[in-house]
Amino acid sequence: MPVALCTTSHTPLMGRTEPGPGVRDSVEAAMREARAFIDDFAPDLVVLFGPDHFNGFFHDVMPAFCIAAAAASVGDYGLPAGPLRVDADAARGIAAEVLRQGVDVAHSERMQVDHAFSQPLQLLFGGLDAVPVVPVFVNCTAEPLGPVARARLLGAAVGRAVVALGRRVLVVGSGGLSHDPPVPQLRGAGPAVAERLIAGRNPSPQERSDREARVVAAARESDRMPLNPQWDADLMALLASGDLDRIDGRPNEWFVTNAGRAAHEVRTWIAAYAALGAGGDYRVATSFYAPIPEWIAGFGLTTARSLATAEATP
After folding, report:
1. Given CB 3.0 to 4.6 Å as the disulfide criterion, which of 40, 132, 160, 291 pairs with 87?
2. Where are the domains of the chain?
3. Is this structure's pTM higher than 0.85?
């Protein structure tokens, strides 16, 4: 059945800090191109792989992966709050099939998501409820992290489940690429920070505002780890090649050392490309990249189709 892909970086600083001359225009042009690709493909279901930034998932129970049959955005960084248009039947069916294939995945009937999900839904589709979606959380932040190969295996299992649905499905990966924002870790945290990382759901408006202000301020700091455009380019080329198992041997430390503490968000791209590849060979249709330090992001945006889908399209 027809399957296509869109992967995109996300950044909560997109509306908070201004990048260099022409950068915003080039990003907006790439977004228009991606939206045109999506409109042409006309999906009737979106499977969205995304991480969380201690807004919906915490150390009280931290799954490696979780598929939601219902989800709502917390509305961080001025993005929309409220329920996503989740296709519950599709979500439960995909979760059951992924488990049947031997990939351990949690299931949620009340997932909370943040800008990792709401921003691509807003920018690519026009809103939280614009398209039926199956949210798939991928832990990219909270240690300990499993090997990156697990994200590929998750994506492949989801892809096989998607193909069996017999629908026009767009898989979306939201995250990455190289970036090193101020991501707190439980190890070494003081009592107040540790409590927030363990059970910090539903902060007060002031607490959320203070937290977001710290991230905006971090974009102006000169001691942040720089972006790594070459690492980003190499990873994007690997994903485009379809030879995804080449990344299996990369240790977790390789991502952090070369591309920053939040570079593990590329697990969402790996999962999305693996899901697309489960239906056969694919071809990248569009590819955009710009290093944007003002957004603390190596900002990438790609679209791709399975060859079977491309050949079936007039």
Report:
1. 132
2. 3-312
3. yes
- Fold for the domain defined by 3-312: Protocatechuate 4,5-dioxygenase; Chain B (3.40.830)
- Point out the catalytic residue in the list 10, 53, 115, 264: 115
Which one of the listed residues 53, 107, 179, 264 is annotated catalytic?
179
For residue 88, report the phi and psi dihedrals to the nearest 5 degrees. Answer: -65, -40
Between helix 252-259 and helix 229-241 the angle, nearest 10°, is: 140
| Known catalytic membership, residue 59 | no
pLDDT in tens, 210-239: 888 888 887 677 667 999 999 999 999 999
Q: Is 115 a catalytic residue?
A: yes
Beta bridge partners of 174: 8
Burial class (CB in 10 A: 0-12, 13-18, 19+), 120: buried
Q: Is 102 left (phi over 0), alpha (psi -120 to 50) or beta?
A: left
Tell me if 76 sits within 8 A of 117, measured CB to CB. Answer: no
